Amino acid sequence: MAVTRTFSIIKPDATRRNLTGAVTKMLEDAGLRVVASKRIQMTKEQAEGFYAVHKERPFFGELVDFMISGPVVLQVLEGEDAVKRNRDVMGATNPADADEGTIRKSYAESIEANSVHGSDSDENAKTEIEFFFAEDEIVG
Ligand code: CMP
């Protein structure tokens, strides 16, 4: 299995509850390595650009408002089959559907305040990593 990268966001509901370490430990325990990390206050323009694929969805405005409601921690994660590995440990988008032992089952408050984002494909991972990180900020 190839070692690949994915992009992760620890969302404002999780940073607000001081869960950065707890979430990161679950990622690391799942076999992922944090090869880049930064805590930022996302701007409205960044949130709208990052989630542009969802701009026609009815929840877009609330999603953007939520993502700028507090600090987020952006991470590049590396591991074997990183996109799938990360999605497995995150659990379903809606915490009501998430399996036991997943990050969202453990910590998410709602489908919006669902604690983490993770890329859904290798192609999107590359785009999302490049949206927030320069290559020299990633140290594997
Ligand atoms: P994320 O993986 O960050 O990608 C888009 C986000 O939209 C998703 O996680 C959810 O947190 C958020 N969202 C808010 N409302 C909904 C909804 N009704 N259906 C799907 N996603 C939603």
From TrEMBL:
One protein family per Pfam: NDK
Listed GO biological process terms: CTP biosynthetic process; GTP biosynthetic process; UTP biosynthetic process
One of the record's GO cellular component terms: cytoplasm
Catalytic activity: a ribonucleoside 5'-diphosphate + ATP = a ribonucleoside 5'-triphosphate + ADP; a 2'-deoxyribonucleoside 5'-diphosphate + ATP = a 2'-deoxyribonucleoside 5'-triphosphate + ADP
Family affiliation: Belongs to the NDK family.
InterPro entries membership: NDK-like_dom, NDK-like_dom_sf, Nucleoside_diP_kinase
Residues annotated to bind ATP: K11, F59, R87, T93, R104, N114
Positions annotated as active site in the UniProt record: H117 (pros-phosphohistidine intermediate)
MF terms in GO: ATP binding; metal ion binding; nucleoside diphosphate kinase activity
Cofactor (UniProt): Mg(2+)
Locations listed in the record: Cytoplasm
Top-rank EC class of the record's enzyme: transferase
Identification of the protein by name: Nucleoside diphosphate kinase
The Nucleoside diphosphate kinase-like domain, residue ranges: 3-140
Task of the protein: Major role in the synthesis of nucleoside triphosphates other than ATP. The ATP gamma phosphate is transferred to the NDP beta phosphate via a ping-pong mechanism, using a phosphorylated active-site intermediate.
E.C. no: 2.7.4.6
PANTHER family, sorted: NUCLEOSIDE DIPHOSPHATE KINASE, NUCLEOSIDE DIPHOSPHATE KINASE DDB_G0292928-RELATED
Subunit and partners: Homotetramer.
Keywords from the UniProt entry: ATP-binding, Cytoplasm, Kinase, Magnesium, Metal-binding, Nucleotide metabolism, Nucleotide-binding, Phosphoprotein, Transferase
